[in-house]
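Researcher: We're teaching a course module on how sequence relates to structure. For the next exercise, students receive a sequence and then see the predicted structure as tokens, so they can try to spot secondary structure elements on their own. Here is the exercise chain.
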Amino acid sequence: MGATAVAELAETRLEDRREAGEAFFGQHATRLAELCHRMAERFARGGRLVAIGTEPAARSDVRHVTVEFVHPVIVGKRALPAIGLTGDGAPLHRELGLAIAADDIVMAFGGEDPTDDRVARAVALARDARALTVAFAPLGAEVELDPPTADPFVRQELVETAYHVLWELVHVFFEHRGLLEGRGEHRVHDVGASSFLYPFLSEGESDLDAVLADVAASAQMKFADVVELRSATLAGGHDTLAAAALALRGALDAGGRLLALGNGGSATDATDVVADFLSPPAGYPWPGRAALDLGADAAILTALANDIGSEAIFARQIIAHGRPADIVLALSTSGNSLSVLDALTEARRRGLQTLALVGYDGGRIAAEDLADHVIISPSQYIPRIQEAQATVYHLLRELVS
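Model: And here is the predicted structure for the students to work with:
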């Protein structure tokens, strides 16, 4: 498919996402704000976020939301306790039953398959345990935020934006501590790690409705931001997207594999890419394609990081796994991660084709021409970059088919 056809397809897909997102955030912005408040109350009482999911793409969201809460990427945001359960060690409901506490927040991903009740059973157990339950499909959760589209890719992208918004805005209520349940007004400037950013805030806040209205408006603004960033990412980049898709299809048709990698939230996006290639979601009658997630094996990652150094965790796997027909997909929000730079350098040394999805101005990956195809999401805000990159790799999957 040439650049013109890719541009037309991209425009159609962007409009699909805009329409679905405006409907979703128009319907749920206030509920998202209220949910942020309720989550903050539970975190303040010692509760945790427990993310659950069993399907391949849902597992990537489970890992993505937990890393965002535990390892905040925005200066001044506190780390919040979060764990992910995917039914690996025991059936999901049993795994959850052994981990759940009454003040926890259980966030369920996937569950759209009516023949698979594992997530629904876990949600029911969590409700019985008096946890706050949240789901992005009709699963019997107390709060259900069901995207208004049947397209699995659009649904997942909306879900990602929704949980990013929850993570970003739950912190507002720690900055207005007087709004948390059981807290009286104490006019002291105590906003935790973000005090140097918000010295004017105090615990004397009392107008919950006004704060909720501000948070709801902010949620809608954040969706508008990602709409703009998706357009900016693809504007003028259709030649690159078309060339990348052609190279990726050619590599896979020649018996090669997609080797995907990234760190943190980008690692979970690499997991999602691999899941989409190995087993396309329902509704897409595409064949499975060979793909390998280089961030999947904790034993390999920790062995390499411990014995050689964290910058080698992907490069050494490319040495072990890389074959001439393979193609490497690197995801990075900054374009400067040493482990990603070393992986791309090693891939090129071995004659593998390379594709990079990056944020900011492309970082060293773009400046030093370290990948054959580079698609830049021009933003410095990590959640929006990741959301725009999800659209790009979903488009790539469609173009490769």
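Model: If you want an answer key for the exercise: The chain has two domains: 3-227, 236-400. The radius of gyration is 21 Å.
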